[in-house]
Design a protein that fits this description.
The structure is a homodimer. By secondary structure, chain A is α/β, with parallel strands linked by helices. Chain A is built from twelve helices and ten strands. In chain A, strands 1, 2, 3, 4, 5, 6, 7, 8, 9 and 10 form a ten-stranded mixed beta sheet that branches. In chain A, helix 6 runs antiparallel to helix 8, helix 6 runs parallel beside helix 10 and helix 11 packs antiparallel against helix 12. The N and C termini of chain A lie far apart (about 45 Å). The model of chain A has no long low-confidence stretch (mean pLDDT about 95). Chains A and B meet through helix 8 and helix 12 of A and helix 8 and helix 12 of B.
Chain lengths: ~300, ~300
């Protein structure tokens, strides 16, 4: 399997880097880090062991890349406007594109923009940050679940999961992509937005009675919203997420880092789309909608 | 009528000041501003005309004050713990205490602490700030509505309204105090908390599509909560409040000023009590509850 990684940052760099480090054939697209990485390679400081990926297969433009069988997309969803232009250079007729992205609706949009393309979703459970040019810091966790969208080949995706497992990354084929996406939202929805609006990392939120109660209420809204959409998320999953977060070191989710670094926030796919999906099925996720409105205000009025 | 003013700040100073300036017998209790005011009087810079109230009737301790017929309480509700100790020195058996305070439940608490005392609520519709020692700035509006609590004398309260009117302050006797308090919450609930959490004055909120939509949604929750409690607030009142706020200059509500100046916020009476009251009648004001939790977090974790 020939792999491509689009958006080689905290997510794409870690997962693609692990595959390359294990000997797979992986081709990486870089933007601002290209010159640095071509010369020095890129570095992953990981709780599972540090390593460096050489710059041999680094590219500065999609047009220079080979056609690949599996494309891992690690772009922020705020950059999805350029996705089609990039993919056109890289995919062949049997390629599968795995969107390792947050939120709901990314596969729908890609399927609309590139009909006939095999698409899948990647759900990364990981604390990982880009801390400099060609330099990624992997702090905690690292599991990735992959789920087919529509009629994408389960066999190829199973092979990708096996490659991840061989590379030391826990990976499972999700039976139901929508279930997996909603499940991930149980954590992402409260923590991404609240850390921004409340100006706090996860730890202070977990230690504060009011904020923790709010986190639970929002998680319950996600579960109720999922069920309204026909996705049978169980309420018990909330306790598991709370327990996991309690054990985490103080953490800034990706949206908090985006906000702190004055980058656009992934409001559309993490908030607007799930709220719209639930509402289309008759359930109003009121607190999540409120957080979406607060985030939209903050982003728009940021000076 | 002999008047006392407890808490001579932005609210008590303006309303008591207007009464005194019109020739009424008004006695003012000061805390930190006492020495300054005793010597220089206090100054009200008002859109209705600037004036100075001499320090003759200024007091630094409740024990030094005469018994008064009508007590106007302009304290922040966060100081209501000292209210009973102060009032004991000032009230006689027929006194009426008018709580010119925000939120829901202040009269309940006073009636519990001082059984038999005649109590009323004052609803101030005013943009007014204390900008220095014995110095108040009245920027906009100024109406005060007064409503009897329990069996407080309507006749005396009508007389107070007349005194206000004669002093150039629009004033009405509210038929139903609970109606008046809930009505005031339609504005206070969205703007007090959102200006804190979003770090913005009213004007930027009004100009932002998402924030304005959220304001409307929260106002609708207040109307629904009031109706659940048997208070027949009408939805049309929301449009009136939006229109009024559109015309206001950029404004920081009292809670925003409290936050900016590192004072305690009036979360209990503006948020916690209304949420509890509606919930006791089966209606969950979900967005208002969310704002309460966000404010509790911010207050508790403020460094």
């Amino acid at each position: 399997v020939k792999y491509a990684v689009i958006g080689t940052g905290a997510i794409g760099g870690y997962y693609g880097g692990k595959l390359a480090h294990a000997g797979n054939d992986v081709h990486f697209l870089f933007h601002s880090d290209y010159t640095h990485v071509k010369e020095h390679g890129f570095r992953v400081d990981s709780i599972g062991g540090d390593f460096i990926v050489p710059g041999t297969n680094a590219y500065g433009a999609a047009a220079d890349m080979p056609k690949c069988d599996v494309v891992l997309v690690g772009l922020k969803t705020t950059n999805n406007g350029i996705l089609k232009d990039i993919l056109q250079h890289i995919v062949h007729k049997d390629s599968i594109v795995i969107l390792i992205q947050n939120g709901l609706g990314v596969e729908d949009d890609l399927a609309r923009d590139m009909p006939g393309l095999q698409t899948a979703g990647g759900l990364a459970f990981i604390c990982s940050n880009r801390i400099g040019a060609g330099h990624i810091h992997h702090l905690d966790q690292g599991r990735i679940n992959i789920g087919a969208y529509g009629d994408a080949s389960r066999d190829v995706l199973k092979r990708v999961c096996d490659d991840f497992t061989s590379a030391g990354v826990e990976s499972h084929l999700a039976e139901d992509l929508m279930f997996a996406r909603w499940q991930k939202l149980v954590w992402n929805i409260p923590f991404n937005g609240l850390t921004v609006v409340l100006g706090s990392e996860t730890d202070r939120i977990m230690k504060n009675e009011s904020a923790l109660a709010l986190v639970r209420e929002m998680m319950n809204e996600v579960v109720d919203g999922a069920n309204a959409c026909g996705v049978p998320l169980k309420r018990e999953f909330i306790d598991a997420m709370i327990e996991t977060t309690m054990k985490m070191p103080p953490y800034s989710p990706s949206m908090k880092l985006d906000w702190d670094n004055r980058r656009p926030m992934e409001i559309e796919y993490i908030y607007t789309r799930p709220v719209a999906a639930a509402l289309a099925h008759g359930f109003d996720m009121r607190k999540i909608s409120m957080l979406e409105r607060q985030l939209r205000f903050l982003e728009k009025t940021r000076v």
